[in-house]
Design brief:
This protein is α+β, with helices and mostly antiparallel strands and 660 residues long. It is built from 21 helices and 27 strands.
Length: 660
């Protein structure tokens, strides 16, 4: 979408909003489309595309005809947009409700729905200032990025396009192509599931996203209609949890403390393995693919012995990683990284933003231009480009009083003519799903459990979202409740009181148990896995600690230092670059490209096959072979050459333990 098309759509919108009787095509062509060349057929196609675009932005374009005439006659057909049909209803929130809304909007930070959640929040704020809110002390729940497949499936589900993908069935272990009408996405048992209509089997089926073996292809020319009463949460409740099983694994002596702590001794007889350097352990598990991902990451330190499907799954991941690491290096040129929310068409984003910008300025007159830009997450230059388009847009005719009137010469932005764009557009399906699914997910957060604000804000939001809110039943987030509520409470209380903690911690990457004094600063989660960020006095720096790896925790009676608080002020990431980190160039497939966002890539390069080359900062490079193996052919190291060679040698040694 070009800038001129953006301006044309905006002028068309203003014209259709400000007519009671409706405008004929001929009238619109003489005014809004006066600079467009081409014959009547080309103009008609352009007009139909523009109407569809306006509908996607949330506007109902009504078609009116004179009595007795058909809609096929352009001379007697008129168009308009009802001023109330597209507006987000006025809704007021208390400070506690704003707190809940902000937490819900932040859940999708690293997923594509994060963009929709931020857009929905800006619409809610457009009618007035958000109340001063106080979030629970240091608590920032997040939903773990589910990869590119999740983003592609959400987009297809909301536009109601079928999808096609490769899938490895749990029942047979065979890979085949599936064509599915996606009805809903949800998280259960720590995994994301797609539920939809499998066209080959002519029945509803569920698919675990981690079993997809290819990128998701959207069949954009086809449409489907999901069941009217479909609710993803009800469907997920019917899914049975996989039965508990036992695996036999040979583990190198003295290694993998975290795995040893999970070993069982009563389920099976596990005599010593044939290699004196290894010990044979029995491990409880439910899903062979989940355990295979973990065992593959341990490389030659762990060898799956039984059952056979587990050993095959580990070898498959290692072979895929080794084959990808040995493939020719593509040509690429790294440039500034783009986050997921930047990947949509920039002109479409610009028009959506401008439709939020006008009502925001109406209710927030005189804000400094930099503050307005920060609110919308753009640069001053981008904001000024928006404003320049807005002041050239208006009613057909273009007289001064018929144009949007915005001034910002003194760096403070004022608007005196809004042309009925003074209220935000109603929620899109994506925006409603992002907030409502986020609110549902927060039910498990200890700080909000049983709170009236969560229930009341959900009811208000459902009423405001209307039909789009009804379709929020197609998305269900994961549980938020921490596995160890006692540790969670101790850390939360220490953050609230500014108290230091003494910590006994198991580090799987270093394979050690250590004791340290830490200043806890922030609690955050990825799904139901909780972490806390703290200043660690043992290493004199910020570190993240998983709560389920804490073996002992107690207050020291000492207050945290102000220096630690200042150091953490600009953090807030799971993976944050530090001075002295190593810059690593990795290649990601189309399935694995979401890792560039997860690890905050500094620079990226698009590849013709849909993959990505990313430059990522890593503090500890010793675990990179584990990273490559874990993602089983979706990621490989390109540079530095020494790290790439080490990963290939590590993968070869891992496969050698299986005899190939």
């Amino acid at each position: 979408m070009s800038a001129s098309r953006t301006e044309r759509l905006l002028n068309l919108l203003i014209a259709l909003l400000n007519t009671r009787y409706g405008l004929r095509r001929s009238e619109l062509r003489e005014t809004v489309y006066r600079t467009v060349t081409g014959n009547d057929v080309a103009f008609g196609r352009m007009f139909e595309r523009d109407k569809n675009d306006l509908r996607q932005f949330g506007f109902d374009v009504e078609t009116l005809t004179d009595l007795g005439w058909s809609e096929d006659d352009p001379a007697t057909t008129r168009y308009r947009i009802g001023k109330e049909s597209n507006r987000l209803p006025d809704v007021q929130f208390s400070p506690d409700e704003w707190t809940v809304l902000l937490l819900a909007s932040q859940l999708w930070e690293r997923a594509a729905l994060g963009t929709a959640a931020r857009s929905a929040m800006r619409k809610l704020q457009a009618a007035g200032q958000m109340a001063d809110i106080k979030l629970p002390a240091g608590v920032q729940p997040r939903i773990k990025p589910a990869g590119q497949a999740f983003d592609d499936l959400v987009a297809a589900m909301h536009t109601r396009h079928p999808v096609s993908f490769g899938y490895r069935a749990a029942s047979t272990g065979q890979e085949e192509r599936r064509t599915v009408e996606p009805w809903g996405l949800g998280s259960r048992f720590g995994q994301w599931y797609l539920i939809g209509f499998d066209r080959a089997r002519q029945a509803a089926r569920h698919f675990r996203l981690s079993r997809l073996t290819s990128s998701v292809e959207t069949l954009a020319r086809e449409q489907y209609t999901p069941p009217a009463d479909f609710n993803i949460r009800q469907e997920l409740d019917l899914l049975p949890e996989l039965p508990r099983r036992t695996a036999v694994v040979d583990v190198r002596t003295g290694r993998l403390l975290s795995l040893r702590q999970r070993a069982v001794t009563n389920d099976v007889d596990h005599p010593a393995g044939p290699d004196a350097d290894y010990e044979r352990l029995a491990l409880a598990y439910r899903d062979p693919e989940v355990l295979a991902e973990e065992l593959a990451s341990y490389g030659p330190d762990a060898v799956a012995v039984a059952p056979p499907e587990l050993a095959e799954a580990v070898q498959r991941r290692l072979r895929a990683a080794a084959d990808f690491s040995a493939a020719p290096v593509p040509l690429f040129t790294l440039s500034g990284a783009r986050s997921r929310q930047d990947r949509a068409g920039t002109a479409e984003d610009q028009l959506k933003r401008m439709l939020q910008l006008v009502p925001f300025l109406v209710h927030n007159q005189g804000l400094h231009i930099q503050k307005v830009a920060r609110h919308f997450g753009i640069s001053r230059q981008e904001l000024e480009a928006d404003l320049r388009i807005l002041i050239c847009s208006g009613l057909p005719g273009g007289y001064p009083d018929d144009l949007l009137d915005i001034q910002w010469e003194d760096d403070h932005v004022f608007i005196s003519q809004d042309l009925d764009l003074n209220r935000p557009v109603r929620f899109t399906v994506e925006e409603a799903c992002a907030l409502l699914a986020g609110l549902e997910t927060l039910n498990g957060l200890p700080e909000l459990a049983g709170g009236g604000a969560l229930e009341s804000v959900t009811l208000k939001l459902m009423a405001a979202a209307g039909e789009a809110g009804l379709r929020a039943g197609s998305l269900a987030g994961p549980a938020m409740a921490p596995a160890d509520a006692g540790v969670h409470t101790t850390v939360r209380d220490a953050i609230s009181s500014g108290s230091q903690l003494h910590l006994t911690y198991l580090s799987p990457q270093r394979d050690t148990v250590s004791e340290r004094d830490v200043d806890p600063l922030r609690l955050f989660s990825l799904d139901d896995t909780w972490y806390f960020e703290a200043y660690c006095h043992l290493v004199d720096g910020l570190r993240n600690f998983r709560l389920d790896r804490v073996q002992d925790l107690r207050p020291t009676g000492t207050s945290i230092s102000t220096d630690a608080t200042a150091l953490a002020a600009g953090s807030g990431r799971m993976f944050a670059a530090n001075d002295g980190d190593t810059s690593v160039t990795v290649q990601l497939t189309g399935q694995g490209r979401g890792l560039a966002d997860e690890y905050h890539a500094a620079r990226t390069a698009e590849l013709p096959d849909g993959g990505l080359v990313a430059e990522i900062q890593f503090g500890n490079t010793a675990w990179l072979p584990m990273f490559v193996a874990q993602h089983g052919g979706q990621a490989r190291i390109l540079a530095p050459a020494g790290l790439a060679d080490a990963a290939r040698e590590w993968l070869a040694a891992s496969l050698a333990r299986y005899g190939g």
